[in-house]
Amino acid sequence: MKSSETGRYTVFNNTMGTYNLLQAMVDLDLDANLVHLGTMGVYGYGQTGKATIPEGYLPVKTSTPDGEKEIEIVYPPMAGSVYHNTKVTDHQWFQFFQRNYGLRITDLHQGIVWGTQTPETSRDERLINRFDYDGDYGTVLNRFLAEAAIGYDLTVHGKGGQKRAFIHIRDTVKCVEMAINNPPETGDRVKIFNQSTETHRVLELAKKISEMSGVEINHIPNPRKESEHNELDVDNSSFLSLGLNPTTLDEGLMEEIEDIARKYQSRIDESKIPPSSFWTRDIEDAAKAVK
């Protein structure tokens, strides 16, 4: 969303990368289970009200000459960004290649990943994962943690009523492992998991971290075009039924503040925290007016 150039790069890179991989599997006649790490963003935010988002497929009733019939359809996507739209395209290619060529495919609709360490990476500091906190790539929770570490007011975009799905990086790795070990059978439709463990509003997260760290909250103009407030109820029963034992925010937040954000606070560049990319021209003009 930064520019037309970055948008085109994202569309070509993501979409063609997926298509090329699927076509290679067909050309090489591979009987493999493709596991795709996607995003909850394909569902969109706000159009479902309080209805639970199912794992990829929605039961609907339709009228036929023989009366009402219940069928399942792919859950209607409502992507809110260029990136999320490429994941919707991926999702449609998966459906096509499964139907046409019988490929075995698992699509993971992942929530926002937080946390930096897995049991493996924590064994040596050189294995530590990246921690993005900047205005373009930093996820909301990482941004708050970095801000809390240096005493920078927590930047809440808009009113903070946006509700999002979250998952710890340890659980992300575990879910990928579960998907690999539980592939669909030949001929099965695309298997879809909602890879998230809990949902929170942005303002709720800010308040939680503010209480832990003593850092104030600062509401700033939202650089994105999104609903100020939305509901989000997600069905994640598939991974729970396979034995996932989630790491919750209540259990892991202070660990991240103490062991990661504060430990490496000298590397945080305050100038990278404020948003510098605005999704539409009118939003950018409004942000400039505030400055």
Describe this structure in words.
- The protein is built from eight helices and twelve strands.
- It is 37% helix and 20% strand.
- It has a single domain, classed as UDP-galactose 4-epimerase, domain 1 (Alpha-Beta Complex).
- 30% of the residues are buried.
- The chain has a three-stranded parallel beta sheet with strand order 1-5-9, with helices on both faces.
- With 291 residues, the protein is an alpha/beta fold.
- The chain is globular, with a radius of gyration of 20 Å.
Which architecture would the CATH scheme give at its second level?
A: Alpha-Beta Complex
Helix content: 25-40%
Broad structural category: alpha/beta
CATH homologous superfamily heading: UDP-galactose 4-epimerase, domain 1
Poorly predicted sequence stretches spanning 5 or more consecutive residues: none
Supply Rg. 20 Å
Number of domains: 1
Taken as a percent bin, the fraction of beta residues is: 15-25%
* End-to-end C-alpha gap: 21 Å
3D shape: globular
CATH topology title: UDP-galactose 4-epimerase, domain 1
Strand elements, count: 12
H/E topology pattern: HEEEEHEEHEEHEEHEEHHH
Number of helices: 8
Spatial strand sequence of the major β-sheet? 1-5-9
Summed over residues and divided by their number, the pLDDT gives a mean of 92
CATH class: Alpha Beta
Q: In this structure, how is the largest beta sheet organized? A: 3 strands, parallel
